Amino acid sequence: MLRVCICGLGKTGLEIARVIQLQNDMKIVSAVCSPNSCNRDQDLGDMIGTKPIGVKLTSSDNLEQEIFRTRPDVVIDFSNVEAVIKNAYIFSRLKVNIIVGTTGFSKIGRNRLRIYAKRYHNGIVYAPNITLGVNVLMFLTNLTANILSDYDFEVMEIHHKNKKDSPSGTAKKIAAEISKGLNSAGVDSRAEDVNITAVRAGGIVGKHEVLIIGENDKIQISHEAFSRKAFALGAIRAARFIDGKSGFYEMNDVLNLEKVFSDYFSKKDSKKDEGLNRLIIG
Length: 282
What we know:
- With 282 residues, the chain is of the alpha/beta class.
- The chain has 2 domains: 160 residues, NAD(P)-binding Rossmann-like Domain (Rossmann fold, 3-Layer(aba) Sandwich); 94 residues, Dihydrodipicolinate Reductase, domain 2.
- The chain is 45% helix and 22% strand.
- β4, α4 and β5 form a beta-alpha-beta unit.
- The longest helix is centred in the last third of the chain and has 25 residues.
């Protein structure tokens, strides 16, 4: 049974808690809120609309004591960037694996997480782009940029009006994947050169779209999250992946997309070879 701590109990954190409660191989053992939260000491079950589950919200000021008391295997952290960095130091030092689902990290912040994982030999999945579908979008975007390197690429993203970072961390990662694909095709490109249009409006959970435009045609690759359950399912997949591992990972590692893609085409090539052999041999 995978023992889970949830940090950051906003809308996404609460949805993750609801979905974990439905899993047979996972158990929530602790829930951590900010020091000034009005929900301190409430039962998490009351927060997610179920019967009490015996897990009370604890302030992050008492994080180390709570970890010693509940001994989670993995923490899923959706608190703000500053809190994630502070928490990650404590979790890493105590050998607890971490799923980071928060967006808005600077390069320095990401490197700090890498250092923690290397120094303390715990496992960290850095996944501000945690939905499964959007990671497939990124992989397809990289591939398309490699094939259609003479096309123009634009990224559009729309989120709810309360989202703080703009453009989103996911949009920036998509731009980075475009640049990787173009560079692989011999085109000099930087992520900063890819245009991103960001919209903040209403209650939109999240939509990312890549426009790939040539002289005579256009391709659109898009992903839209209909509910926060998409984030919860990604977090659960990452938590199962990181169990028992050490090191720094991203969602591409969790989904193993490159191997899936490679295996798919290897099988197709193998079938083509079999067909040719039958033709040759008669």
